[in-house]
Task: structure prediction
Amino acid sequence: MASATILKSAFLPKRSEWAAATRSSAGRQATAVSLTVRAGSYADELVKTAKTVASPGRGILAMDESNATCGKRLASIGLENTEANRQAYRTLLVSVPGLGQYISGAILFEETLYQSTTEGKKIVDVLVSQNIVPGIKVDKGLVPLAGSNDESWCQGLDGLASRCASYYQQGARFAKWRTVISIPNGPSALAVKEAAWGLARYAAIAQDNGLVPIVEPEILLDGEHGIDRTFEVALKVWAEVFFYLAENNVLFEGILLKPSMVTPGAESKDKATPEQVAEYTLKLLHRRIPPAVPGIMFLSGGQSEVEATQNLNAMNQSTNPWHISFSYARALQNTCLKTWGGRPENVKAAQEALLVRATANSLAQLGKYTGEGESAESKKGMCNHVSGTVAERYRAVLSSIIEPQYTVKSQRGAF
Result:
């Protein structure tokens, strides 16, 4: 497949005054940003779907691991990477009783979108029955970016429109496209521009076919840099992303974001408290993210289960113009997977473990998480057993916080 950089070279829009103010404009003249916004006949539905996913006390379960990545997870508990084992694990996840009270959307891999549970029910139907909006990963993965400092770009634009149309017919109502930015490798201007342009083209195509695009330029945790360097890079990345989203006439009210939290590099000698992470991350959002965007669903990015929950809770201690929530994979699934261990007799305990993490993050979205009942192991991301009484305590607290109009049934939208 040809690089998106090559495909767009003949008609790449120049920087606007708005975007140029956030970075160097040397060698290029500013142009006015088009005010035309097009989302086709799906505009109203996109807005409703985005608001449904961004509903109070709920977030996204990211279970869109590729078959290869899912195989690594299964191998960690001694299982082979077979379709039957993948089906069994996915069935465990989507059939957790009451999951829809805390989870508003689930990102699926293509195999999962067309897959049935071990009981023969379509996975999409199982999700919808719990008022969980089905989503779909649409990118085709990362490949080396020629001319860069060992950086990557995300492929998948070819044929994206027809795939999105098919996914919509299958029941998906939102999409996800993940690209990455590496701080130790630069990031180069080329890599940032390529990531932003690809995300913008994907978002426009997804909206034209009825899918709410989740925009995810993940800034990797790798490196020894401090939190100020992460903040600096994030400012540049999000300035580029929203410039090209605007140039591609993307409807901001019909998108969701999946950013990284602003933290020091994983190998940094400096560690940040949840309050520091919240301060830097919210400062980034206020400087770069328009209030028209309905939801910001953070990725955990390698944080432990409890660490990701604590940081989310800290960000929700203030009033924000966006719904600030979670779109976690390992930070929701890690304990669940270990508890299951591939044994049928452990399914109930594993589902309870997932529910504990879902309810904890639901409380964090509401700014009401206290850490009550968390074990030392779960704080390290190494918990192998979860008591059902913990989930009961979380549910009791949650039920006293959420207003009646925010019940699950009232959140059903265009899906």
